[in-house]
Amino acid sequence: MKRLAIAVSILALSISACATSPTAPTPDPAPKFTATLLPTNEVPAVINADAGASGTMTITFNLTKDSAGNITAATVDFSGTYSGFPNGSALTASHIHTGAAGANGGVLVSTGITAGEVTFPAGSGTLNKTGITLTAAQANAIMGNPAGFYFNSHTALNPGGAVRGQLIRTQ
Known about the structure:
By secondary structure, the chain is of the alpha+beta class.
């Protein structure tokens, strides 16, 4: 009888354990970065008519991970605001580059804008691009050392870059 009571108790505990549903893990928030874009951050600093410009860029990574948590694919969304450009200015390119503050580096991820796509008739405006593909290696590199990368935007007046800012992880 004692064995039967123990077996019933074990069975009851097993059933009650099955009745409670496990808590689903909360997904990681999408990594997000910002860059404060200033002409004084360019190397060399911009001193012509674009010198009064500024902007803020928010960069959001959309990651696909395997069951072990490794990044297998990634896209990036860019959302930026600009002001202080001469009326009628237009961006000719915008990118994430490799390079610490004070150093220039190569383009790593382009927004893919084309000349004339982003214009500032009254000296200000926005840049929004979504779903730009980057590799898992690029995503890992930026997340591992955001300060080693910068975002900049180019104009016809400053083909090497008009405004620039180092990436800072905010989420």
